[in-house]
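Researcher: Predict the fold of Minichromosome maintenance domain-containing protein 2.
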Amino acid sequence: MSNLKMKEAALIYLDRSGGLQKFIDDCKYYNDSKQSYAVYRFKILINPSDVVELDAELGNHILHQPLKAAEVFQSVCFIAVKTLSLIGQLQTETQINIVLKLTHLPPLPSYGLDLCEFPLDYTSQRFYMMQGIVIAMTTVTKYTQGARFLCSDEACPLSKGFQYIRVHVPGATESATIRNDFLCNLCASSLQEDRKFRVLGDKQIVEIIATKGLHAFQGHSNNQPFRFQSVTIFLRDESVNKMNIGNEYKIIGIPTCVKTSQTAVCIEANSITFCNSKVPSGISDNFRCLLSLTSSSCWKFTAILANIFASQITPPGTYNLLKLCLLMSLVQTTDRNKELEDCLDILIITSDILLIDRLLNFSINLVPRGIRHLVSAEIFPTLSRNKYGTGAVSIQAGSALLAKGGICFIGDLASHKKDKLEQLQSVLESRNITVYIPGKKFGEDTDQQMTFPVQCSFWSFVDMDSSSRRNAQKINTLIGQMDCSLIPANLVEAFGLLINCNESSPCHPFLSTVQHTLKKAINPEGLLYAASRQFTTEDFEKLLAFAKNLNVEFSLEAERMTHGYYLASRRIRTDSICGSKLSASALKYLVFLSEAHARLNLRNKVLKEDVLIAALLFETSLTLKYDRVSLGGRGCSEPRSCHCTPTWVTEGDPISKQTNKQTKNVLKFKVLLQ
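Model: Structure tokens for Minichromosome maintenance domain-containing protein 2 follow.
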């Protein structure tokens, strides 16, 4: 009687939710088809809240006994087909394969599966919700959705018809559907598959890790040992290719135990939802007050941010230019499911690699996807054999794809091999990576290739002391004469910003850094400066999270100034033999820098003041890249705004002509940075 009541409730739910009409339309497709089917597959969308409100027992079955709930809907659908004469070829109830797709699960702790907890419940065969980041995925292969078996004894009544239909159920392996040891229930003879009625579906295997597992890639562990393990997700049919490497998803599925060379807990995915992180509603009170106090200038707020940023690592007032660039790169990251095109790649030339390493490592931890590349790992995707024996090749993410929407800090550039540097240069120029899959090696008939977008900013540094030791040369402090022979010129050109952080520079006082290091050695957890106490790391995290989600647009004046500077810069860096040294991507980086400065100022519109700072930073980088060729003449170790007026400001070009007042404003910003 209870089963009959649940069937009635299932029919009412299908009628109210529109599922019955969709079922009738699907039946019409099968009935009109000229092909013969042994299995008729129907997908039914289930809202657990609505079902529980309609009938608690049916809702309980869906949530805790999904296989039995599918049998209830199977019976209802079979009766509907026969009553309404929807499919003339359908003979038995077993031919109907019902797949229940859940919209959500109740927001209760018992329905959550924390991938960091042990042991995992894989025996209850019910739905759980878990959340994780994709770190590997296979190519798409086939699996058996359903098959028809016949009794091998021709005298047996079951040697004909559709009595023996086997379909895939969540958690079942291929051998559970297709085997040669099935026996007839009537005469105990062996069953044989009727291969012409086999139904195939698509299958893909994905590996995810808990979001907490990213701490292993962020360069900090609080001096506590830890480990993480990936969990395998099986995607089938409609879910195939719904997940991308590097993205974070919420997955509703049924845990199961799969035995290969070792026992592993896997998840049969039922529904997949992309995770969008919450955007903070504002910034901290301290930063709000600072923004109000500096509202009279378009540059004071960012200059002060650069001055006090990372005071746990370096004293306030040191490495300001580098810290400003780091903040601008951080504010161009994203947590949204959109293509990250505003990448700001930074290459730093330094002789103090320990301090720079600490500063960059501190900075990447301010965003959710700040990844420090491990020496033992790979930067870009690699191939391996799938451990579940499906014949598919597994593509491992690598640090760059894990840092999707964030920052990938790859350490000392000179520590990477030549082939990796060439691959990095290709990625920086094209913003994608192509993985070639040799068919012969992985048991395929043909070779394949897959292309993945690389949506992160790369940070790296070059150790000038190492360069000088290898070449037995003394570093000249003039930017235009620094030795970068260890790094290919084309690779240096591919980075958007090239920054010099030399200890001998007046902007990097040696004494204050030494005093800071000694104080931190005595009191590692202490806050040495008032800025550290007033503007905490959490305040910076909240500021960056809010600023990077601002939508900015260029004002007409800013757009004209950007194009004017770009055209003037290309013209002055052009010779008759090699043409222009300035690549077409230069305009793109100018736009990114301008947008980043506007976001860092918490503005929605890019002003001409933002473009001036973008030009200042970009000009400094160009001076490093192209020897001593600069728009104003000779090279210098400081941003040229300190002592020289750019040609594009004073020239009479109708597009790029600017006023002397704007030049004085650039000088004013430099003073603020110092």
